[in-house]
Amino acid sequence: MNKRLTTLAAALLAAASIHGYAAAGGVLRLDESPIGELDPAKATDYADSILMFNMYDTLVMPKQGATGFDPMLAESWTSEGSTYTFKLRKDVKFQSGNPMTADDVVFSLNRMKAIGQGLSYLFTDVDKAEAVDAATVKFTLKKPSAPFVASLVRLPIVDKKLVMEHLDKGDGEMKDWGQAWLDTHAAGSGAYSVVSHNPQSETVMKKNPAYFLGIPAAAPDEVDFKYGLEAATVRTLITQGKHDISSQWLPPEVLKALAADGAQLFTEKGTSEFYIKLNTAKAPFDDPECRLAVSYAFDYSAGIKMVAIKDKVSQGSPSTGALPVGMLGSLPESDVIKQDLAKAKEHLAKCKYKPADMKVELSWIGEVPLEERFALLLQANLSQIGIKAEVKKVPWALFTEMVTKPENTPNVSQVFVNSVTGDPDTLLYGMYHSSAAGTWMSPEYLKDAKVDELLDKGRAAPEADRAAIYQELNKRLKEIAPTIFAQDQTAVFAASKRVTAPALTDPKKAFGLAGFAFSFRLMEMKD
Questions:
Q1: Which of 143, 300, 419, 422 is the most buried (most CB within 10 A)?
Q2: In sequence order, which residues have a C-beta less than 8 Å from that of residue 140 and are 6 or more positions away?
């Protein structure tokens, strides 16, 4: 029998979360890119995740300042083969006042799988969930899956009774599963409740005074979360003291100017990376020698300088491979990838295509202007080894359609990808397994038996063996170069001096899950 038992005293978790705050409260004003999806079964983007992490809770939460997971709505869990059993806390109430029970957990999983949107794909290997009793829930998987516990950070538990009271038109017993109502309302147990919501412009939230972990008086009383503000508008508002935290998408020069004006710079790293992806299904990048040539030709250090903001603060940091430094299975910082034109020319000489015959299309996503700079940098780098390339701006909607067929997919694509659970499987399986080709994450169309083998092995292996498996996978991906691992992304946010956010300023309090540092109960507002 292989059994795992994990426990954590609730008092310690609450104390660690709130220690050191002084009373203040007030209104926190921040922004992100639209849209803000309120239904937790559909949440995928950064803004959606922030809403979910504040209005809903999950069975487990990422450890603070470390890898791994702690109980949250659960008190403990055990695992045996393909079965996981969770003991639930008995002191949790939803914002409606209804108690949280195992029935709510089962309902939440079934709802997410039935709707089939958002991150529901994380649970395709879950055969069923059962309420053993009011405080015990058992998950049975179709096969052993090491990333399962990590995936639970994306299973927000909804108030079954409240949702059942708001079913709308639809087929079957569950009709629409409450989707119409949950588009504008919340049914969670989270630290903040929704006051008003417009997915294109703004969500207003307020403290939940009955939150089971408690909320410090210094945490924001109200949160005004705006969507789609222009960079110039954000700069003006922060300078005038009318805005508190910017989105992560401000150009480096705007962040630099705000810092010079006295704004704080918050950072979040270790969960995402910037990938320059090569279409391996058509010439010239069906030849690994040609892929290796361009991967060595790229000027990685110039890319880092291009997004630098000030000393020791940049929107990117050196990459060592397919996984951000610090994630399970990542390669050490000493393995930083560097430009080597001599090696680039050496591999190009072995490529079956001659540089003069190559027609390379470098695409960049029109909604992310920063990507144009990287496309132009790579274009210049390729010219250094005799390859001509054409830079093309592609709108996101068109790009996601193009990549569904390899023949329509550009030779080179650029995307930022983050691990939505903090587990390497979530990041790599959808990019590199041969069964996953044809999405915005996988325009490489990679087919490599060794990569598939290691990805499958990483899913099924005991936790103690997984780091070594993903390190081996990392090395294999560098050997066959389906992607230029341009840089690990660092999300940088400009902030007013009114707000303190330890999870965004102190590495010992950071979370290895994108967006979780924006749990507003962990922040402090000053007068």
A1: 422
A2: 82, 83, 126, 127, 128, 129, 130
Mean pLDDT score across all residues of the chain: 93
- pLDDT exceeds cutoff 90 at 484: yes
The pLDDT of residue 34 is 83
The shares of helix, strand and coil residues in the chain, as percent rounded to the nearest 5, are 35, 25, 45
What stretches of 365-462 show up as alpha helix (H) in DSSP? 370-383, 396-402, 424-432, 449-460
Q: pLDDT value at position 454? A: 98
pLDDT band, residue 283 (cuts 50/70/90): very high
Helix H or strand E segment including 364 = strand 360-365
Q: Are 378 and 389 in contact (CB under 8 A)?
A: yes
Q: How far, in Å, CA of 505 to CA of 133, rounded?
A: 42
Main-chain dihedrals φ then ψ at residue 217, nearest 5 degrees = -60, -30
- Cβ–Cβ < 8 Å for 269, 311: no
List the domains of the chain with CATH numbers: 23-232+496-525 (3.40.190.10), 271-490 (3.10.105.10)
Comparing CA positions, the residue from 480, 520, 481, 474 lying closest to residue 500 is: 520
Cα 137 from Cα 330, distance rounded (Å): 33
In this predicted model, what pLDDT tens digit does every residue of 99-144 receive, in sequence order?
999 999 999 999 999 999 999 999 999 999 999 999 999 999 999 9
Look up residue 426 and give its amino acid: T
Contacts of 16 (CB under 8 A, 6+ apart): 64
For residue 443, what pLDDT is reported?
98
- Report helix, strand or coil for 191: coil
> Angle 183-184-185 (CA atoms, 0-180°, nearest 5)?
105
Task: Please give the Cα distance from 47 to 32 (Å, whole number).
Answer: 6
Pairing between β-strand 202-207 and β-strand 222-227 as defined by DSSP bridges: antiparallel
- At 5 the pLDDT is 39
Q: Which of 222, 266, 220, 226 is nearest to 521 (CA)?
A: 220
Contacts of 397 (CB under 8 A, 6+ apart): none
